[in-house]
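A protein record in our archive is deliberately plain, so that people and models can read it alike. The record that follows is passed on verbatim for readers who wish to inspect the format.
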Amino acid sequence: MILCSYYMLVIMMFIALRGEVHAIGDSTANIACETQRGPNLGLYTEFLGSALCYSSLHIEAIAVRFDRSSLLESLRYSAGIGFGSIQNAYAPVLGKLVLFQGSGHLEIGLGICVLTSAGSAPTTEMLLPAMSKSDVNLSTVVGYRYEPSTGGFLFRIAATPMYDFGARRFVQFGGFSLGWVW
């Protein structure tokens, strides 16, 4: 599963570096989309966040960038890989909707997170007794994101609750991210 996340990262980087942002047309809502405006690729590290990982590396690509007059800024997808003391490795894959034009954005997202743990993972049991050690969980993000429209420094602070399918409950996480967009 972790190997799949690496492949997703490579594919996303290839798509984003090609510089193509495909427009989505909705004739009923008349949503206008633009191509080639602003950065198309982001690389950031998240501290804490999902699964209380010490640090994780994420790559993000913009699938759709909406018209400047829209409340919506972009539709993005991201994949990451993280390592920490609670889970040996985790790999979130998310779709995100970024709202508000300009540098400050509201970010909401939904996806899956693959968790792997070697052995009995006593630190998982000690620090996260609510987690059922399910391999695949529902991952969400709601937070504030600072990102200049021309690219550059990225800062994000977010709540990243995860739905544990084994325990059938949400487990609350949160963290911050630093990175670069171009």
In short: The chain is about 10% helix and 50% strand.
